[in-house]
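Proteins fold reproducibly. Next comes a concrete instance:

***
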Amino acid sequence: MCLVLLARSDAVRLSTVKLSRMFRKRLWGACFLVACFPAQGLIAQQPAIDPSLDIAIVSSKDGSPQRAIFYVPPGVAATTPGPKVPLVVFLHSWSTDYKSVAPALEESKSRGWVFVGPNFRGPNETTEACASDLAVQDILDAVEHARKQARVDPQRIYLVGSSGGGHMALLMATRAPAVWSAVSTWVPITDLAAWYEFSKATGSQYYRMMDQCMGGSPEAPERAAEYRRRSSLFNLSKTKGLPIAIDSGLRDGHAGAAVPLSQSLLAFNELARANGFPAKALSLEEIDIFTRESRVPSALAEEKENETGRRQAVLFRRRAGPVRLTVFDGAHSVDVPASFRWLDSLTE
């Protein structure tokens, strides 16, 4: 079998990843750089953030103060009259923390939207992080704090995240679907156990980080259940009706890029089925071509759109009711302004 997960049953569809002998050799030849370049396109020098926006929100679960970046536009405080405005909740990536939110913060400011970027227990390297119950509650607590402090429109609470933030955004969509009005996720991890195998095979540091979070590999039955519980793939049926955009790079999972494209494609399939569009699901053969060969299958080559302003061209786009999948000409990266333009379009 190649990189793509093959189904054990219709309910699971992807629980393990096995690399073909040929592809394993290719990965070892090209992807040993993963450890040196852990999140291509996502970890960069961040502009300074006004220290006054750096706050503590007390966890309703364990009483500990948790850091967040919180911005309320002028005149939008809860104590002042006026129209309600959207709230953007931005989730940091796998190896970073709540301070790596500057691009999303600036997009929110330019629109006059409320913004919160919770830490949700920081980089995924401790037992309290990586979609733990504490981390989940931290995000919900951040939403509640924003709603108490600002005139937030409950019908326009948006969730955005990339890479590890994309992992958490889709997980939060399954844990609290009624909270969110839309979710924009880039290059997400959707099956931690599968990503563990991929990361270990390619020599990246991420499987070791998962060891720290989970207490070991997913091979032990008790840990396998926890890996699954902290993965969105197996619970996406709970998000029926929720607008979700998944954007992923065609070359992700290759040459140092951290997350195989199959993680996004299989999630789209689950979302398509959940929303009553099973015919929109990609076949396993198509997923294999996308993932292993880094190309759009010939039969799908015309299924794309032009989108003004994107940093990287759209190579493939498919919709299934409220769900949208975009495969762009790139690898493991995020285009934050494109997320906000999609959110803008939902109210046009």
